Amino acid sequence: MNVSIDTSRCIGCGMCEYTAPGVFRIVGRFSTALPDPDEAQYRRARDAANGCPVNAISVKK
Ligand code: SF4
User: Given 1, 24, 44, 50, which residue has the most CB atoms within 10 angstroms?
Assistant: First the structure.
């Protein structure tokens, strides 16, 4: 799974970390994707991407 975050869009709201804490973590004012997220987290990561209010998350399998 490949997860990327456009930090020029991210507003640090924390929704992605709340939805998929095994994939995302807020560091400072932005979200970061944890290295090598578990494939089992794919659905949650997709949910987080869909819930991001500024469409900053890209998730590819
Ligand atoms: S949900 Fe989107 S805007 Fe909010 S912290 Fe995550 S990446 Fe940033």
Answer: 24
